Amino acid sequence: MYQTIQFIHSYWAYLVVIMLTIASISAIIGWVSGKEYSAGNFRISLFTLIVSHIQLLIGIVLYFVAPYFKMWGEVGMGGVMSDDTLRLYNLEHPLMMIIAIALITIGYSKHKKKLTSTPKFKTLAIFYTIALVVLLSRIPWNAWL
Q1: What CA–CA distances, in Å, run from 142 to 20, 138, 145?
Q2: Taking phi first (over 0 means left), then psi (-120 to 50 degrees means alpha), and beta for anything else, what does residue 34 get?
Q3: Cβ distance 124 to 46 under 8 Å?
Q4: Which residues contact 22 (CB under 8 A, 6 or more apart)?
Q5: What is the pLDDT of residues 71-107, one digit of tens each?
Q6: Which residue ranges in the chain fall short of pLDDT 50?
Q7: Disulfide-capable partner of 121 in 25, 29, 30, 132 (CB 3.0 to 4.6 Å)?
Q8: Where are the transmembrane segments (predicted)?
């Protein structure tokens, strides 16, 4: 079960990174160029929100079935915090991904309340780009690629 969920989580992550990158670039271009906010822009931002939330749900399941989770009980907080790998998988990666998805959710919610195109693009550009940076900062690159 663990390998299957890890496989799904790893490959769904490619979709999340691609969609978040596209949404960020699209929002930045729309903001800078003064384009009109279109249904296509809305779909990109919504699809990014959806795939990131699906990834969060897969990640939560993976967190509790992963062998790393058992280490909290075996070596305790001090043991997990002193081991770089355990700290990454048990604390840093989950926490930063939750923060990134919260930023995506907040940005999406705030942009819907804006009435004109420039503030919509600006809100999406800021929140989605920060979320992308946060997300990329804590991906376990050595295990992922």
Answers
A1: 21, 11, 6
A2: left
A3: no
A4: 44, 48
A5: 888 888 898 898 888 899 989 999 999 999 999 999 9
A6: none
A7: 30
A8: 12-32, 44-69, 89-109, 121-141
